[in-house]
Amino acid sequence: MRKLLMPIQGDYVAPRFDLATEVYVARFEDGKVIGEPKTIIMEKPSDEELCHMIIEEHISDVICGGIEEIHYNFLVWKKIVVKDGVIARWEDAFQLLLDGTLGQGDIVLDESDALGIL
């Protein structure tokens, strides 16, 4: 079983790991969600607190937007799969992860998303 942590902002993957105050955590296996996912609201943004949470929660996968190289390297060193540079609705990004098709730097937006962002 794997466990995902994804910093989110509204309906989207948070654009920056270090500024996120909301994270989505879900367990999954063989492309299916296991149990009830949870959303955690942090008191304030903290990249170090997020890294600590990732280790404490035994997270195996992280989906995020931008992430500092030092934190990326730390998480990869801890054998955590990090998909960074992702721009998408968080539900779409999670579904692509479940499907095994999410890649580094994937941009998954439809026309209405693109108009809202621009």
Pick out its properties.
4 helices; six-stranded mixed sheet; single chain; 31% helix; globular; 118 residues; two-stranded parallel sheet; alpha/beta
Order of helices and strands: EEEEHEHEEHEH
Distance between the termini: 38 Å
Can you tell me the overall shape?
globular
Helix percentage range: 25-40%
Structure classification? alpha/beta
What percent strand?
25-35%
- Average pLDDT works out at 94
Counted by DSSP, the helix tally is 4
The counted number of beta strands is 8
Instruction: Give the biggest sheet.
Output: 6 strands, mixed
Instruction: List low-pLDDT spans.
Output: none
**Rg of Cα set:** 13 Å
Give a short summary of the structure.
By secondary structure, the protein is of the alpha/beta class. The chain has 4 helices and 8 strands; from the N terminus they run ββββαβαββαβα.
Description:
By secondary structure, the protein is of the alpha/beta class. 31% of the residues lie in helices and 32% in strands. The chain has four helices and eight strands, in the order E-E-E-E-H-E-H-E-E-H-E-H. It has helices spanning 47-56, 69-77, 90-99, 111-117; strands at 2-9, 12-13, 22-29, 32-41, 61-63, 81-83, 87-88, 107-108. Strands 1, 2, 3, 4, 5 and 6 form a six-stranded mixed β-sheet that branches. The radius of gyration is 13 Å and the shape is globular. The chain starts with a strand and ends with a helix.
